[in-house]
């Protein structure tokens, strides 16, 4: 173990942290401000909605497309670099494109190529850092930090300098992301592990994997009211938009602290215990939001539970995928997890709660539905992942 840890260079940790920071900084730019960018260019609500739907579609189909190539070739970092380069070029083209069709194609291309990056970075990070308990969480926390920094600062830049600031920030971040990807080395799989997997003919699909992906989809869907209407909900409760933004930041800060401490949690509790507790806390979080968000201690607790509803669930999912899926299928598994959860789930969530919201009048009903979806995830977990015959402890 000490020898394996020695083979992980400090520069590897720095580079991978930089890749996560810049990737999720782009998320922090795109998720809140893409609609603002399109509005500044004169797009109407219907056009913006159609384009955002296209973006969501790319997030669903893109990861599996690229990861199939990565698993077949074994060149995960090369696939990530190609995706990062093409995503950068797509963003740069927005400086010159003026037609709506041209911008649509550029943004579609950006999202298609950009989805090639994260599954490969996850695979590489888990392979490089698996020998150091808790290190994955610390490196992954850089992504949360990147999201919060850019989502906080980009709004000011766009307000002062207009739509071009959105593209400029995106290009700068994409350049930094590509630079980090160019410094990452493809990790080697131990020959003994390759031989063991070849002899076992390890299958990809299992009841537990289906359950994990389904739970990911349901939990992401349960965040629909929070991701879509939280700011508006807080304004309705009397908070300013500035204060509401800092309340969102509180949840992300809790997530960062969780990622730094996840190693100690894994050493004290079984993986299935942590996973199940996080699902229950997610359900509790939305119940608290449904009826007691006007009580600030309850609201604060709900926001701190983002550490469970996203942080613990994501960390447990990554650990499970790394230890229970054959190395030859790692990228495919990451793509399935990402495309189904963060892709399809991020589409389904707003679609479920939007008809219920009714300008805030249906906030309670919306969050109760989200709590019900999280409760369904608990049931799926019990019937699939927890009841599977697979050992939840990582192999020695």
Automatic annotation (TrEMBL):
One of its GO terms (molecular function) is lactose:proton symporter activity. The keyword Kinase does not apply. Residues 14-367 form the Major facilitator superfamily associated domain. Pfam families: MFS_1_like. Coiled coil: none annotated. InterPro entries: HcaT-like, MFS_assoc_dom, MFS_trans_sf. It comes from the Bacteria. The keyword Transport applies. It is found in: Cell inner membrane. One of its GO terms (cellular component) is plasma membrane. The chain crosses the membrane at residues 12-35, 47-66, 78-97, 103-121, 142-159, 165-183, 204-223, 243-262, 269-289, 295-315, 335-354, 366-385. Keywords: Cell inner membrane, Cell membrane, Membrane, Transmembrane, Transmembrane helix, Transport. It is a multi-pass membrane protein. This is MFS transporter. It comes from Neiella litorisoli.
């Amino acid at each position: 173990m000490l020898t394996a840890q020695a083979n992980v260079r400090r520069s590897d940790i720095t580079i991978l942290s930089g890749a996560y920071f810049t990737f999720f900084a782009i998320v922090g730019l795109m998720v809140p401000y893409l609609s603002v960018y399109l509005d500044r260019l004169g797009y109407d609500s219907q056009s913006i909605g159609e384009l955002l739907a296209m973006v969501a579609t790319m997030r669903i189909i893109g990861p599996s497309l690229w990861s199939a190539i990565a698993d077949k070739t074994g060149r995960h970092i090369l696939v990530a670099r190609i995706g990062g380069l093409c995503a950068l070029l797509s963003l740069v083209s927005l400086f010159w494109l003026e037609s709506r069709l041209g911008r649509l194609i550029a943004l579609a291309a950006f999202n298609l190529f950009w989805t090639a990056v994260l599954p490969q970075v996850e695979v590489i990070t888990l392979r490089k850092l698996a020998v150091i308990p808790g290190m994955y969480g610390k490196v992954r926390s850089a992504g949360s930090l990147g999201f919060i920094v850019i989502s906080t600062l980009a709004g000011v830049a766009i307000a002062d300098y207009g739509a071009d600031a959105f593209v400029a920030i995106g290009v700068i971040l994409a350049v930094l992301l590509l630079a980090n990807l160019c410094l990452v080395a493809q990790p080697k799989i131990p020959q003994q592990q390759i031989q063991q997997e070849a002899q076992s003919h390890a299958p990809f699909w299992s009841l537990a994997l289906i359950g994990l992906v389904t739970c990911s989809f349901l939990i992401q869907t349960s965040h629909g009211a929070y991701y879509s209407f939280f700011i508006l909900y807080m304004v309705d409760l009397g908070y300013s938009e500035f204060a509401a933004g800092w309340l969102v930041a509180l949840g992300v800060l809790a997530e960062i602290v969780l990622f730094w401490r996840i190693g100690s949690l894994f050493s004290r509790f079984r993986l299935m215990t942590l996973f199940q507790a996080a699902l229950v806390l997610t359900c509790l979080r939305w119940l608290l939001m449904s009826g007691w968000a006007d009580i600030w201690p309850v609201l604060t607790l709900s926001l701190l539970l983002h550490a469970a509803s996203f942080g613990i669930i994501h960390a447990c999912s990554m650990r499970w995928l790394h230890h229970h899926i054959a190395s030859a299928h790692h990228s495919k598994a990451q793509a399935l997890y990402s495309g189904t959860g963060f892709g399809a789930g991020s589409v389904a969530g707003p679609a479920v709660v939007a008809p219920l919201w009714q300008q805030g009048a249906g906030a309670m009903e919306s969050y109760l539905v989200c709590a019900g979806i999280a409760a369904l995830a608990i049931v799926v977990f019990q019937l699939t992942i927890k009841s599977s015959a697979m050992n939840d402890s990582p192999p020695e």
